[in-house]
Amino acid sequence: GMGGVGKTTIAKAIYNRFYERFEGKSFLEKVKEKKLEKLQKQLLFDILQTKTKVSSVAAGTALVRERFQRLKVLIIVDDADDVKQLRELVGNCHFFGPGSRIIITTRNESVLQEFAVDKIYRAKVMDREEAFELLSWHAFRSSSCPSQYLALEREVVNYCRGLPLALKV
């Protein structure tokens, strides 16, 4: 989905709500900005709770497959844009134990299609009412706007076109 629509926020909410149901968990943020070896080390540390030496990308991929095969894990891969990186980071569903969930956020839906994910959820921009309420909570710590700011609030909501990130900032 488009930038600022709330993909990361939704993924964080899912993670925070369900992580206790899993034997291992990891939230890998902004993966397109990070080197694969660093991401593999973080993933291994998050799940195994111990530092693991990763000598190469191939070795890291093998370690993930070998160590996580019997574990029920929750892994969030945030802001992915490279199928090759995804394959080397989380491989496929056979890398993980039964009940595991891998959630990927991306601006590029073709990455998900090429990676052959099971389901795609498309985050949508907010409708006007939701946008007004979000802006009011962030600006006034209330679900509604004081009357003297209604015209300004309308302008801001129109300008932001329902993008939650723009309304929050």
From TrEMBL:
GO biological process, one term: defense response
Segments passing through the bilayer: none
GO function term, MF aspect, one: ADP binding
InterPro entries the record matches: Apaf_helical, Disease_R_plants, NB-ARC, P-loop_NTPase
Highest taxon, organism lineage: Eukaryota
Domain NB-ARC: 1-143
Pfam families: NB-ARC (PF00931)
PANTHER family tied to this protein: ADP-RIBOSYL CYCLASE_CYCLIC ADP-RIBOSE HYDROLASE (PTHR11017:SF575), LEUCINE-RICH REPEAT-CONTAINING PROTEIN (PTHR11017)
Name of the featured protein: NBS-LRR-like protein
Origin species: Malus baccata
